[in-house]
Amino acid sequence: MVEEKMGGCWSQTKDQFDNLEKHTQWGIDFVEKYTKFVKERSEIELNYARQIRNLSKKYQPKKKEEDDNKYTWCRAFHSTLNELNDYAGQHELIAENMTSQIIAELMRYAQEIKTERKAHFHDGRKAQQQVEASWKQLESCKRKFERDCKEADRAQQYFEKLDADINVTKADVEKARQQAQMRHQMASDSKNEYSSCLQKFNQEQNEHYYTIIPNIFQKIQAMEEKRIERMGESLKTFAEVDRQILPIIGKCLDGITQVAESIEPKNDSSQVIESYKSGFEPPGDVEFEDYGQAMKRTVSETSLTNSRSDNKADRSSKGKSKTLWPFIKKNKGSNPEDFSHLPPEQRRKKLQAKIDDINKDIQKEMDQRDALTKMKEVYVKNPQMGDPNSVDPRLAEIAHNIEKLQAEAQKFEGWLAEVEGRMPVKSDPLKRTSVLYETQNSTPPTNNNCAQDRESPDGSYTEEPSSEVQSKVQPETAESGDEFDDADEEMLPTIGTCKALYPFEGANEGTISVVEGELLYVIEEDKGDGWTRIRRNEEEEGYVPTSYVEVFLDSNAKDVFSWRRVFLSEDS
Fold first, then answer.
1. Structural domains in the chain, sorted by start
2. pTM for the whole thing?
3. Residue 116 to residue 225: CA distance in whole angstroms
4. pLDDT (tens digit, 9 = 90+) per residue, 262-290?
């Protein structure tokens, strides 16, 4: 019963004390080991987040790839990259929370528990030293009492021996008697001292084993249980830190799923058509050239002119024939400012975008001018705020910039008007007397080496400046852009019928006059240039503005010509 309360005898208590010291030290080492584990996990999360961000940044669209955003699948991929950035941010949050909520707390707690453990074991060692000192004192008193008792016995025996010897003088006997009495007194004093030390030791030993040591062990036990509890809380926090970000990560993944579901293949396919249609028309068939006779070539099916160049043989002998549009090679040099290297439709888009950018720059400059003008007015009214003349140089610079930008915008608008004049768009029938007709009846423009001046009415294309077409109307200039013979052209099959909604004179070459309400045959559908090819009889056919007629295509013809709206780009 006593041993259960005491925890064993002294030697056993001492062994337990040392074992507890080792065990608590191992517990602190385990806390530090777990702290290091969480720290390494935090570093892994940071590195993972950094790699995810670098990956997202690596595949972000470059400035030259910004046009890809018109496709839904490209936008979906770019949205996925943005979601990955948010995803990486959540892993950075994991590392941050682990550092603040686990690593910092455990490091602080480890220092506290080390200090507390050191104090407890210091008290235990001090108590042990006190008991050991009391025990040594008891042993010393015991040995002294034993020694004094032996000395008293020897002195008593010596006295008795002398007292029995008749030859010994009385003085010697008295001296031996006094010596024996002194030794007995010393033994008695040692006995009392030994008794006192024994009583003191027993009291201290009882207090040590029943009070001091149990209290110290209880404190160490409480410290150990608190350490274990903190370990459990840290493990729970370790899981909660991950669980807290799961909803946000789920939203990131849901966002990726949503953008994936928003991909529209048909819309992207339409964008391809819109982006790469060139405005060129397919060339006609190439005839077999019999070198035993004069070379003859038929004109393209889509030719607007039936004239034939009188000096065709001379130009052919010089090797300056035109290149058909599917085989046009891309210019490897620097692109011209007017985008004349592009097909008509793409050129129109580029010019419009350039004009929009210039207009934005003009608006910025005008906003700065207005702000500086107001500042100057304030300076005029309040000279102490600043010198009004100091603003003049900047206003002059802005005015020069605006003038320069307006001139540049006017230049691009001229090119755009030229493109739109050659590519009539569908609009109000009352406005169908478009710029094209005005320019055709006017003086031919000067050759400016643009792509439209190199596009012949039959859809062919040339990179030779000497064979550029300057006008569609004047027969003498149209001859220089025509190398196909209309006389040998095979008759095209009809693909439907049409009804004339408005009268059209057809004064230009390649066109045909119609009267309102007239029914005609359609032999070639509008390719996006605003013109439809029709036939009245076997001898009369030509082009009319698409908006002037109501077309009724045969069902089979619709399927055949549905993809002919896709015009190849120059890279094709």
1. 10-268 (1.20.1270.60), 344-422 (1.10.287), 496-553 (2.30.30.40)
2. 0.48
3. 13
4. 999 988 888 888 777 766 667 778 877 77
